[in-house]
């Protein structure tokens, strides 16, 4: 019983992390139809900022965390301004290639100017302490992760439903030109999408750092891959889909870890992706893919 | 109010409108008529800034032809576009709020929304429903209301009767007539020439990207042949 509870909590906390990552991709995709593969490098910027803060500024973890989130948010907005704005109305493939380009450039900057080797940050280890909750031993990191994700989701839902700019972002996912025709500035909507994406990347980088304890130039590769898979399963362009896909991916991963015999441990990812593939056979556009717009004269 | 001089509109390499001039006086309702492919929607798109064009587009004397889409709306142009383009994933009320996205005065926005729900009780009843669940006629009303939420100086209506049942078309025209009598300046694009001219002060006949005739409804209605030739509706 205790074992089951523990694994459920594991699944939820993995799922929470993936949901956070997937939302970062989905929010940009929903507004501009761009799969931002440079999201992983934005996460890595968060990691390196923590290194820099810990080494040069302070050991206060709160300041380190705030610094990392601020840095990823600024990086994300800066990337929109410099790299993605010029290709905003171009073909989706152009955007995708731009994202890969940005990703490669940033990775090489990390390699050249920082270090190809992992750099450790120890200031966040305290986040990952064992806690007893209702007789089940879990990590405090899992609690932080789950609570943060819930707060982010609630905040995002409120923002998207209550504020005019949030409504405009949802409208933009359907018909961006019509949003511009109401006078709402496209630049603001795009910048905001990237700002939110950057904030989410920052939070994710903190949790990844707390778990791994070090950062290298490929820090963001695995997270962005998980985010991409979660978005595909949930339905690209759908924010609830991204959350659902994230939690589903977390659940399937933990289930495979638990259920597969020891000898098959190395095949975990193969089984995970096999199950994901089956889901896609059932729903090729993802579980919660947004309905296609059927205009009456286009 | 709106003065357009020598407007050429391009879709890529194709020129859809070949140098037209038209003007809409303050408080007037001007009809831009013509068959499919005449260049009516291209003209509207150019005025809004979403199609490439050359020539001058002046609102109250200020040239907007170089301004961004957003700045044109902010200086007082609002559009109910062809196909209505309601945000079908958002509630009726949210559609109206986005329409007022350029206005900072929250209280007045709320009051305007309440007024619209009074004018169109059906929109009020469905305020929380997704816009996509409305009927065509309701969506057209919503599209017009959304455009007017920005408190524009001029309202561009692109084929408001398109795809609607005759009874609903009559309601839409009643609504436009009412707006005009309240002093709204309107540029009305229509294929439904007869009905459009009934509520207009002046009309232009557009064909193959050129203005073929212009005049008061009486002038235009008098030349029955031309009307029949150009609109197919007589």
From TrEMBL, chain A:
GO MF terms held by the record: L-isoleucine transmembrane transporter activity; L-leucine transmembrane transporter activity; L-phenylalanine transmembrane transporter activity; L-valine transmembrane transporter activity
Membrane topology type: Multi-pass membrane protein
GO biological process: D-alanine transmembrane transport; L-alanine transport; L-isoleucine import across plasma membrane
Alphabetical UniProt keywords: Amino-acid transport, Cell inner membrane, Cell membrane, Membrane, Transmembrane, Transmembrane helix, Transport
GO cellular-component term (any): plasma membrane
Source organism superkingdom: Bacteria
Pfam families on file: BPD_transp_2
Transmembrane segments: 18-38, 50-74, 94-113, 189-207, 227-252, 264-282
Subcellular location: Cell membrane
Principal localisation: membrane
Protein family per UniProt: Belongs to the binding-protein-dependent transport system permease family. LivHM subfamily.
Protein name, per record: Branched-chain amino acid ABC transporter permease
Species of the source: Pseudaestuariivita atlantica
From TrEMBL, chain B:
Gene3D superfamilies tied to this protein: P-loop containing nucleotide triphosphate hydrolases (3.40.50.300)
Transmembrane segments annotated in the record for this chain: none
CDD domains in the record: ABC_TM1139_LivF_branched
UniProt keyword terms in alphabetical order: Amino-acid transport, ATP-binding, Nucleotide-binding, Transport
Entry annotated with the keyword ATP-binding: yes
Any one Gene Ontology molecular-function term assigned to this protein's record: ATP binding
GO BP terms: L-amino acid transport
Cross-referenced InterPro entries: AAA+_ATPase, ABC_transporter-like_ATP-bd, ABC_transporter-like_CS, BCAA_Transport_ATP-bd_LivF, P-loop_NTPase
The family this protein is said to belong to: Belongs to the ABC transporter superfamily.
UniProt-recorded name of the protein: ABC transporter ATP-binding protein
Species classification: Bacteria, Pseudomonadati, Pseudomonadota, Alphaproteobacteria, Rhodobacterales
């Amino acid at each position: 019983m205790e074992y089951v509870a523990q694994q459920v909590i594991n699944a939820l906390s993995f799922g929470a992390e993936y949901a956070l990552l997937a939302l970062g991709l989905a929010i940009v995709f929903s507004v501009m139809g761009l799969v931002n593969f440079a999201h992983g490098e934005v996460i890595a910027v968060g990691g390196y900022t923590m290194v820099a803060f810990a080494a040069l500024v302070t050991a206060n973890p709160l300041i380190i965390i705030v610094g990392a989130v601020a840095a990823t948010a600024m990086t994300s907005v800066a990337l929109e301004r410099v790299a993605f704005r010029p290709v905003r109305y171009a073909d989706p493939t152009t955007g995708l290639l731009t994202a890969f380009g940005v990703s490669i450039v940033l990775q090489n900057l990390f390699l050249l100017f920082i270090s190809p080797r992992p750099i450790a940050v120890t200031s966040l280890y305290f986040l990952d302490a064992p806690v007893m909750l209702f007789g089940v031993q879990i990590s405090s990191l899992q609690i932080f992760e789950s609570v943060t994700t819930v707060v982010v989701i609630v905040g995002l839902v409120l923002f998207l439903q209550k504020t005019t700019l949030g409504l405009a972002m949802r409208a933009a996912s359907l018909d961006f030109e019509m949003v511009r025709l109401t006078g709402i500035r496209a630049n603001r909507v795009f910048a905001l999408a990237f700002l939110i994406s950057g904030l989410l990347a920052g939070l994710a980088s903190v949790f990844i750092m707390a778990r791994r304890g070090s950062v290298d130039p490929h820090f963001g590769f695995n997270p962005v891959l998980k985010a991409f898979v979660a978005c595909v399963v949930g339905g690209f362009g759908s924010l609830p889909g991204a959350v659902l896909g994230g939690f589903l991916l977390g659940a399937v991963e933990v289930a495979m870890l638990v259920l597969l015999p020891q000898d098959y441990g190395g095949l975990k990812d193969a089984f995970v992706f096999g199950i994901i593939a089956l889901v896609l056979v059932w729903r090729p556009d993802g579980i919660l893919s947004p309905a296609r717009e059927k205009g009456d004269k286009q | 109010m709106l003065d357009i001089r020598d407007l050429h509109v391009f879709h890529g390499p194709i020129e859809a409108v070949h140098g037209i001039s038209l003007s809409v006086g303050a408080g007037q309702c001007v009809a831009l008529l013509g068959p499919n492919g005449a260049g009516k929607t291209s003209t509207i798109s150019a005025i809004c800034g979403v199609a490439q064009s050359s020539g001058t587009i002046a609102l109250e004397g200020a040239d907007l032809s170089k301004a961004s889409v957003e700045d044109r709306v902010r200086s007082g142009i609002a559009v109910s576009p062809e196909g209505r383009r309601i945000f079908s994933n958002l509630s009726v009320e949210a559609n109206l709020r986005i329409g007022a996205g350029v206005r900072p005065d929250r209280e007045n926005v709320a009051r305007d929304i309440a007024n619209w729900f009074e004018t169109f009780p059906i929109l009020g009843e469905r305020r929380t429903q997704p816009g996509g669940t409305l009927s065509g006629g309701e969506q057209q009303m919503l599209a017009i209301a959304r455009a007017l939420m920005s408190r524009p100086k001029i309202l561009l209506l692109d084929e408001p009767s398109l795809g609607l049942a005759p009874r609903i078309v009559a309601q839409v025209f009643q609504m436009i007539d009412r707006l005009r009598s309240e002093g709204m300046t309107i540029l009305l694009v229509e294929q439904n020439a007869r009905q459009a001219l009934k509520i207009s002060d002046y009309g232009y006949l557009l064909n193959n990207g050129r203005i073929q005739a212009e005049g008061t409804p009486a002038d235009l209605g008098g030349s029955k042949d031309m009307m029949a030739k150009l609109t197919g509706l007589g």
